[in-house]
């Protein structure tokens, strides 16, 4: 996983843990010092393709981190 993808995923996890809701794309961008929300959009959709997050379209704060640990333990 590229470093920026890991940073975005870690930021989302930390933000949800602190605030109880998922961050918006603009909050992620400003929190990571990025200028463009489109870069965040692209990264989040790559994470979605990898099965690390789920996103409900057209809803604010709709990013959900998918816990893969249960599936990994079950596959052992």
Descriptive notes:
- With 76 residues, the chain is mostly helical.
- The protein has one domain (3-74): Arc Repressor Mutant, subunit A.
- 57% of the residues lie in helices and 8% in strands.
- Strands 1-2 form a two-stranded antiparallel ribbon.
- A hairpin with a 7-residue loop joins strand 1 (53-55) and strand 2.
- Helix 2 (25-31) crosses helix 3 (37-49).
- It is globular.
- The mean pLDDT is 87.
Entry summary:
The protein is mostly helical and 76 residues long. 57% of the residues lie in helices and 8% in strands.
Low-confidence regions: none
Helix run count: 4
* Mean pLDDT over all positions: 87
For the largest sheet, list the strands in their spatial order: 1-2
CATH class: Mainly Alpha
Secondary-structure-derived class: mainly alpha
Approximate shape: globular
- Relative helix content: 55-70%
Indicate the CATH architecture.
Orthogonal Bundle
Counted beta strands: 2
**How many structural domains are formed by the residues?**
1
How far apart the termini lie comes to 23 Å
What is the element string, with H for helices and E for strands? Answer: HHHEEH
Which terms summarize this structure?
76 residues, mainly alpha, Arc Repressor Mutant, subunit A, 8% strand, globular
Sequence-ordered SSE layout with sheet pairings:
Layout: H1 3-19, H2 25-31, H3 37-49, E1 53-55, E2 63-65, H4 69-74
Antiparallel strand pairs: 1-2
Helix pairs in contact: 1-3, 2-3
């Amino acid at each position: 996983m590229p470093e920026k993808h890991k940073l975005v995923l870690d930021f989302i996890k930390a933000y949800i843990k602190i605030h109880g809701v998922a961050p918006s794309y603009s909050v992620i961008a400003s929190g990571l010092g990025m200028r463009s929300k489109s870069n965040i959009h692209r990264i989040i959709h790559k994470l979605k393709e990898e099965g690390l997050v789920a996103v409900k379209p057209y809803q604010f704060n709709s990013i959900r981190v998918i816990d893969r640990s249960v599936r990994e333990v079950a596959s052992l």
